[in-house]
Amino acid sequence: MNTNISKHIFFIASYPKSGNTLMRLILSSLFFTSDGIVDIKNIKKINLLENIKLLDVIKNINTKDFLNLENINTLYKYHLTIKEKSNLGFNEDFSFFKTHHILSSLNGKNYVTQEFVRGIIYLIRDPRDVVVSWANHSNITLSESVKAINNFYGCIGWQKHPRAALPNHIKPSVWVSSWKDHVESWTKNKMNVPTLVIKFEDLILKKEMTMQTIVNFFKDNYGIEVLNTQEKIKNILKTTQFDKLKNIEESEGFDERIGGVFFNKGQSGQWREKLTHEQVKNIEEVSKNVMQQYNYK
């Protein structure tokens, strides 16, 4: 057996603007602090799988391919290599990793296989609110955002890294696909690993209950106890209000901000005032079945 394959990745997966960052703040406070007080710097303890620095390993394997990573078919040849534990660079049994990538294969090459995966937390949000949030985050129009969320071939860029070897003009793609296909790829996965699906709306409106669900998930599936749980939950509730996170972003900055304010409002139902009837119809026509499954009426 390949010693690099050891169920070492715990995915925090979501379509963009669906609560992934808030979830990582909560997890980092539950597992990497003694008191649960949120420090935005702790989010770095949960790494991004689509970080350009991780592509450096390809340079030593095939220089020609390394300089052709804008071609998604070339990139797919190396997705499993990138995810080998020796290349991810940590010593723990497993580590949390964020991704927005669809759980997919392309021309017989897999994004990941279950031998790598310890577990999954998947964040889902009403796609109509995702459209509003993504437009603000990316400085695009709502109409452009609607097209993006319905696009099966939709992609975003990998996160830049100042010490990465990949030349700046080469821009690899994270295949996020459409909202519908992204949700179904992760929630109907055949990985045979513990998977917890959390709605963004519960993360915002039922945060205490949702955190207890997370704590129970790790205890029931992995025997992992979160110490000092109640104090941590109390402090996380106090320090993850969006106005507080927005103030921290403005004073300290935030690496994942690419356009507008990252921690904007964190609201559910804002689409009702922002989207036209036609825009709502376009989203619902594509994603109707999945929206009904998760009670997005």
Characterization of this structure:
With 297 residues, the chain is of the alpha/beta class. It has a single domain, classed as Rossmann fold (3-Layer(aba) Sandwich), CATH 3.40.50.300. It contains 15 helices and nine strands. It has helices at 20-32, 56-59, 63-66, 72-76, 79-82, 85-88, 127-138, 142-149, 179-187, 200-205, 207-222, 229-239, 242-252, 271-274, 277-293; strands at 9-14, 47-48, 95-99, 105-106, 109-110, 117-124, 155-157, 173-175, 195-199. A five-stranded parallel sheet has the order 2-3-1-6-9, sandwiched between helices. Strands 4-5 form a two-stranded antiparallel sheet. The chain has a two-stranded antiparallel ribbon with strand order 7-8. A hairpin with a 2-residue loop joins strand 4 (105-106) and strand 5. The model is unreliable at 257-263 (pLDDT under 50).
Please provide a brief summary of the model:
The protein is α/β, with parallel strands linked by helices and 297 residues long. The chain has helices at residues 20-32, 56-59, 63-66, 72-76, 79-82, 85-88, 127-138, 142-149, 179-187, 200-205, 207-222, 229-239, 242-252, 271-274, 277-293; strands at residues 9-14, 47-48, 95-99, 105-106, 109-110, 117-124, 155-157, 173-175, 195-199. The protein has a single domain (9-126, 152-259), classed as P-loop containing nucleotide triphosphate hydrolases (Rossmann fold, 3-Layer(aba) Sandwich).
